[in-house]
Write a structure and sequence with these properties.
Blueprint lengths: L2 E2 L1 E4 L15 H14 L3 E5 L5 H13 L4 E7 L2 H11 L5 E8 L2 H8 L3 H16 L5 E6 L6 H14 L3 E6 L6 H14 L7 E6 L6 H10 L4 E4 L13 H10 L1 H4 L1 E2 L7 H12 L20 H9 L27 H10 L6 H17 L5 H12 L6 E11 L2 E13 L2 E10 L3 H13 L3 E10 L8 E9 L6 E7 L2 H27 L11
Parallel strand pairs: 1-10, 2-3, 2-9, 3-4, 4-5, 5-6, 6-7, 7-8, 8-9
Antiparallel strand pairs: 11-12, 12-13, 14-15, 15-16
Bound molecules: acetyl coenzyme *A and 3-methyl-2-oxobutanoic acid.
The site of 3-methyl-2-oxobutanoic acid (KIV) has 9 residues, from β6 and β7.
Length: 526
């Protein structure tokens, strides 16, 4: 008999902890909808006490979903748990996920409390959460380095206190598969009330073993696995959902376990995430890498031509790689546009859809054919939803082998209902850098370029170039991602930089409001 394994997706929480992978509320909701379409069982949408923006995002995801359980994370503190409750209570099915570290290194060096005190706090946190909601998960942070007998005591106590799910994370990716299998088996066999809760796994990838450990834990009897799309997450990332799901599907007989994930949605979800965070997966990444189903060598090609099963252990179609031939163009209307976007996983609000449709028409006038990549790009642009204080009015550059690259920009600055135009000129090592310097001068926001990526998002000579940049602005606590696109790379780069400046301005505004205790509803844009 095949056991059902619950899939707990934490792309929007642990995944978002990857540097430069922050998402705004609109983006989180779009991804959450796609995750629901994929049929994940639980979506962890954020850490509500962390900021007003995170709270709003969890609340909005909770409101947007129809059937998936929406979880929020909280420390083992009443204030955190209550804030989490305020956000997840908007879901049809809300879960409070609370945690406390249990390894001696974390207890002694970080929390500075004894094992007995940690046990007491864990139980108190679960009881407090259970008074608010029925569905409570407790995580023993750094379980991978926790003493096994103490771990069993904590697991037994939190189940007794009302936790329906108990998570045993390998927080720092320290364990190896055989050892992790033994650890989970130990807990499953020793804890007397273990059948009253689902045991969950949450494996990090510091030694590249996140997926292997997750599969070992499933074999040992765990009923829930926590993971992220594309394996994004703190440090080296989390176990990649697509790899776990396809391993269980491809080796179903071996594992005698399955998930309810609609695997044909995997590619679409992976691409949606990449386009939101501006981070591509490596070409040789299992399941979702560009080369995952490509065959280059003659012997392989010969084999595949004879019978695909010689070199393919799963079909590209099973992960949603089937080619779509529907081409939209300038004669297409709103219905076809909306329908295709929905097929691609984008359900945009009517006002965003209208702007996206206008952009699509403008692009269709310039390009012969519009491909899915163009549509994905337009939809992602629409989801940015960042209030625009700065709008690029003009950018012009001069460059060549014997002139110093110089750029002139005009920025429209909107503030409190008024508008003014500011024009600045600057030089740089290249034309792109010159335009960034000129934008710094015009906006007054001084940024330093950390990463620059340009990619043709569609096919043909008239392809749209998608520019993604990561900028560290002075006075800002995090790196900001800016995106811009144009058939002209210099124009796309300037648009990306202005986008980043708008996000920096929004973030500084948000920090100002949090410091002044103003909890008026805002959504975080970076
Ligand atoms: C393994 C994981 O991924 S855990 C999740 C990690 N994610 C995050 O931390 C993102 C969200 N975090 C935040 O926004 C902030 O850290 C906050 C709002 C939670 C706390 O901010 P601050 O109050 O400024 O505290 P700071 O982050 O500097 O330190 C953490 C504090 O929480 C305590 N703490 C850490 N884990 C827990 C826990 N599970 N339960 C209770 N307290 C905890 C630490 O001991 C420390 O306490 P102290 O301030 O009394 O020394
Ligand atoms: C809080 C828990 C689930 C976590 O993220 C970890 O241990 O890595």
């Amino acid at each position: 008999m095949s056991r059902k394994i619950m899939v707990f997706d934490t792309t929007l929480r642990d995944g978002e902890q990857s540097p430069g992978c922050s998402m705004n509320t609109e983006e989180k909701v779009a991804l959450a909808r796609q995750l629901e379409r994929m049929n994940v069982d639980v979506i962890e949408a954020g850490f509500p006490v962390a900021s007003i923006g995170d709270f709003e995002a969890v609340k909005s995801v909770a409101e947007a979903l129809d059937r998936t359980i929406v979880a929020g994370l909280s420390r083992a503190h009443e204030k955190d748990i209550h804030r989490c409750y305020e956000a997840v209570s908007h879901a049809r099915r809300g879960r409070i996920h609370t945690f406390l570290a249990t390894s001696d290194i974390h207890l002694e060096a970080k929390l500075k409390i004894s094992r007995a005190e940690a046990l007491e706090r864990a139980v108190a946190a679960v009881k407090y959460a259970r008074n608010l909601v029925d569905d409570v998960e407790f995580s023993l942070e750094d379980a991978g380095r926790t003493d096994w007998d103490y771990m069993c005591q904590v697991v037994e106590a939190v189940i007794h206190a009302g936790a329906g799910t108990v998570n045993l994370p390998d927080t720092v990716g320290y364990t190896i598969p055989t050892e992790f299998h033994e650890m989970i088996s130990y807990v499953m066999n020793r804890v007397p009330n273990i059948d009253k809760a689902v045991i969950s796994l949450h494996c990090h990838n510091d030694l590249g073993l996140g997926v292997a450990n997750s599969l070992a834990g499933i074999q040992a009897g765990a009923g829930q696995v926590e993971c992220t799309i594309n394996g994004i997450g703190e440090r080296a990332g989390n176990a990649a959902m697509e790899e776990i799901v396809m391993a269980l599907k491809t080796r179903a007989n071996y594992f005698q376990a399955h998930t309810d994930i609609v695997t044909e949605e995997i590619t679409r979800t992976s691409k949606l995430l990449s386009s939101i965070i501006g981070v591509e997966v490596q070409p040789n990444k299992a399941i979702v890498g560009k080369n995952a189903f490509a065959h280059e060598a003659g012997i392989h090609q010969h084999g595949v031509l004879s019978d695909k099963r010689t070199y393919e252990i799963m079909t590209p179609e099973s992960v949603g790689l089937a080619k779509n031939d529907l081409v939209l163009g300038k004669h297409s209307g709103r219905h076809a546009f909306k329908a295709r976007l929905e097929e691609l996983g984008y359900q945009l609000k009517p006002e965003i859809l209208q702007t996206a449709f206008e952009k699509f028409k403008a692009l269709a006038d310039r390009k012969k054919e519009i491909f899915d990549e163009d549509l994905e790009h337009i939809a992602t642009e629409g989801m940015k939803q960042v209030e625009e204080w700065f709008v690029l009015d003009y950018v012009g550059t001069t460059a060549g082998s014997s002139i110093i690259p110089t750029s002139c920009v005009t920025i429209r600055i909107r503030d409190n209902g008024s508008e003014r135009l500011v024009t600045e000129t600057a030089i740089g090592d290249g034309p792109v850098e010159a335009s960034f310097h000129a934008i710094n001068k015009a906006t007054g926001y001084m940024g330093k370029l950390l990463e620059y990526q340009v990619k043709a998002v569609s096919k043909g000579e008239d392809a749209v170039g998608d520019v993604t940049i990561k900028i560290q602005f002075e006075g800002l606590d995090r790196v900001v991602t800016g995106k811009g696109s144009s058939t002209d790379v210099l124009h796309g780069s300037a648009l990306a930089y202005v986008d980043a400046a708008n996000k920096a301005r929004l973030r500084l505004d948000l920090i100002g409001r949090e410091q002044s205790g103003d909890s008026e509803e805002v959504s975080e844009g970076v």
